[in-house]
Amino acid sequence: LLPVTLSDAQVDELFALVKANPGIKFEVDLEAQVVKAGDKTYSFKIDDFRRHCMLNGLDSIGLTLQHEDAIAEYEDKQPEFMR
After folding, report:
1. Given pLDDT bands bounded at 50, 70 and 90, which one contains residue 24?
2. Does 20 map to a domain?
3. Is the pLDDT of residue 13 over 80?
4. For 60-82, how does the pLDDT look when each residue is reduced to its tens digit (9 = 90+)?
5. Can you give the pTM of this predicted structure?
6. Whole-number percent of the chain with pLDDT over 70
7. Pair 33, 44: CB distance under 8 Å
8. Are both 56 and 28 inside the same structural domain?
9. Phi and psi of 35, rounded to 5°?
10. Are 1 and 39 in a shared domain?
11. What pLDDT, on the 0 to 100 scale, is given for residue 41?
């Protein structure tokens, strides 16, 4: 699920498109940050961090595991009694 914010006018246009074209498909392109419907394209903004996470399928654990080597290196430098 990707919530995007569009203007009221854009949402009204989308409702009109659906009414005129039942079954129309919308395409949400997260990489390009656009919603496409018919011959219309609507831009949206999303925080770079959230966009990166969604494009790479990362949750908080996945983000942490991206730094697994650095974490292991840090842990190896700790005194034995802290391990």
Report:
1. very high
2. yes
3. yes
4. 999 899 999 999 999 999 998 88
5. 0.68
6. 100
7. yes
8. no
9. -110, 130
10. yes
11. 96
Half-sphere exposure of 80 (CA within 13 A, CB side): 0
**Could you tell me if 55 and 72 lie in one domain?**
yes
Same domain, yes or no, for 42 and 68? no
DSSP symbols for 8-73: HHHHHHHHHHHHHSTT--EEEETTTTEEEETTEEEE----HHHHHHHHTT--HHHHHHTTHHHHHH
Q: Is residue 83 part of a domain?
A: no
Q: What token pair was written down for 12?
A: 């009204």
**The 26-29 sheet, strands edge to edge:** 26-29, 34-37, 40-43
Strands 40-43 and 34-37: antiparallel
Shared domain for 31 and 56, answered yes or no, is no
